Amino acid sequence: MENDELVQNILLELRRGTLSIAVLSQLSKEEYGYSLLKALSDKGLEVDQSTLYPLLRRLESQGLLQSDWRIMDEARPRRYYVISTQGKAVLAKLKQEWSVMAETIQKMLQ
Amino acid sequence: MSLIDRYIAEVGRHLPEKNRTDIEAEIRSMLEDMLEESGYQAKSAEEKVIAETLEQLGDPKLLASQYAPSRRYLIGPGWYDVYLQTLQRVLYIVLPIFATVTFILTLADNPLDFVNAVGEAVGGAFGVGLQILFWITIVFVFLERSDEVPYQARTKSKAWTVAQLPKVPHKRQISIGEALTDIVMDLFIFLWIALPLFQNWLQGDTESVPFLNPDLWNLWFPIFFVLMTLNLIHDVFKLKIGNWTPTLTAANVALCLASIIYVVALVATQQVINPAFLATLDSTQISELRNVTTWSTWSVNISAAILVGILIWDMVNSVRLARRLNERPGTLVITKSVS
Fold it and tell me: Is A66 strand, coil or helix?
């Protein structure tokens, strides 16, 4: 019971740390919040809306994303997000770091 | 107003003004997406479905706080230590000086009214202390907000070097300032008690009634002056040596114990305040204070209790510091060896 809670807490921190990478990687083409949520979920990453939306804002304010209100497919206006040039550079760097980290942890766990 | 409107209004209430409208619009659009996903048009969805969707999003206050990771504190970890240090230093320097000056000036105005002078000094120092606390806090709140990025985010990018290590703070256990303060306090107490006592006697003043009981001249005042002189000598050595060496500590413990015994015995057996002085009070301005005697006994007892408390603390503190004299930070003192 208690262990479950501890595991959940640590997983939460893990996810929070990796979520930015996941989001940046999925925004090479424009997505609005909900479609991104679906895209992440389809690939197996379940995220809370209340986490994802503010994160998009934060990444945008850091210059890693660009966004616009737009009407597509004759639907309601939605805010679309896409990765910026700076975001692409950061993502490339993050990819490298991530594979090193994954490898290191993997080695330790064997 | 629909549930959705109410929810968005509640989120908006906790959002920063700057991009409130925009975030509100985005949340509305997100909610509509969620409803459409469950097969409803936002306009015609049932109350129950809307409620479920909103509950999925959770507490509006929490959602808003995710959008605005603003500083939800006055002074953060980056400034807190500096803030405390500054506050402490300024208070330590300003308050004693202010209290002393106020005391002397008030006493100069009205040489026999200690109670009033002490009251003015303590009350004034309290007020000044509050002012200092307030203004220093305000300054640091502004400093905190002048940092563009909050502390935690900042420390990651800035490399820490050993050059940033502060000097070992206490080469001396007893700082020069502390020792000097003690000496000044000794002289001050000495004069405070002695001056009025001798004033009456020197000036051949038989008119004014002394505050402290003249009967104490037989034994108690002389002992007091002996104790104070020893204390003064001890404090000069504190200044000179700077550390709680065994001799200095032993002397301190002895002096404190002697003083405690003196104070307790004095208060328990003697009438400290001159009964004649109380009588003049009774007959003059404070006649409405019927229980002047009770009041004076109480204030003497409370002062004595505070004094004893300070003495005990002083004693304990010196012993505690004496034990740490030869420790280096991070070294263990092994008292028992394991066989």
Answer: strand
Which tokens in the block code for residue B124? 């004034």
Q: Determine phi and psi for A104, rounding to 5 degrees.
A: -60, -50
Run of H or E residues at B309: helix B292-323
Tokens describing residue B64: 């808003």
pTM, two decimals, is 0.47
- Residues B8, B24 contacting (CB under 8 angstroms): yes
The DSSP-derived string for B26-49 is HHHHHHHHHHHHTT--TTT--HHH
Kindly calculate the radius of gyration of chain B based on its CA atoms and give it in whole angstroms: 32
Q: In what order do the strands lie in the sheet with A78-83?
A: A31-32, A78-83, A65-70
Interface of A with B (CB under 8 A): 32-34, 48-51, 53-54, 57-58, 69, 76-79
* Minimal-distance CA residue of chain B relative to A78: B29
Q: Which residues of B touch A57 (CB under 8 A)?
A: 23, 67
Kindly report the nearest CA distance between residue B21 and chain A, in angstroms.
13
Instruction: Tell me how crowded residue B231 is: count the other CB atoms within 10 A of its CB.
Output: 21
Is the CB of residue B293 less than 8 Å from the CB of residue B265?
Answer: no
Name the nearest CA neighbour of B211 among B102, B118, B306.
Answer: B118
Give the C-alpha distances (Å, rounded to integers) separating A33 from A8, A82, B16, B246. Answer: 25, 11, 21, 72
Residues in chain B with CB shorter than 8 Å from the CB of A33 are 26, 29-30, 33
- Using a CB–CB cut-off of 8 Å, the residues of B that contact A are 23, 25-27, 29-30, 32-34, 37, 56-58, 62-63, 66-67, 69
Least confident of B83-87, B215-219, B266-270, B325-329: B325-329
Report the residue of A32, A49, A58 to disrupt the B interface, i.e. the one with the largest count of B CBs within 10 Å: A49
Q: List, for residues B29-88, the tens digit of each pLDDT value.
A: 888 888 888 777 766 777 888 888 888 888 888 788 788 766 678 888 778 888 888 888
Determine, for residues A50 and B58 on separate chains, whether the beta-carbon distance falls below 8 Å.
yes
In whole angstroms, what is the distance from residue A78 CA to residue A76 CA? 6
